[in-house]
Amino acid sequence: MEYFALLIPIMALSIPIVAILTRARRQGQIGSPEQERRIHVLEERIAALEANAASMRGDVHELENKQRFLTRLLEERQD
After folding, report:
1. Domain that holds residue 43
2. What span, in angstroms and rounded, lies between the C-alpha atoms of 77 and 79?
3. Which residues are within 8 A (CB) of 33 and not within 5 positions of it... i.e. 6 or more apart?
4. Three-state DSSP string of 9-21
């Protein structure tokens, strides 16, 4: 859960960055090769963050299922 909580601000901050970069690209304001390279690097990093977030969501879901199962076992054992 802690990892998921850290991903929320990361994703929230990455969305405006991508929007600014894509708007600037559409308007033709970005043109130098150095800026293009930086944009490409940022896009790759954002894609990697999104992939990590998806992976962690799966892990969190799996952990929640295991926790529910163990809780159910403990409750049945007490009865």
Report:
1. 2-78
2. 5
3. none
4. HHHHHHHHHHHHH
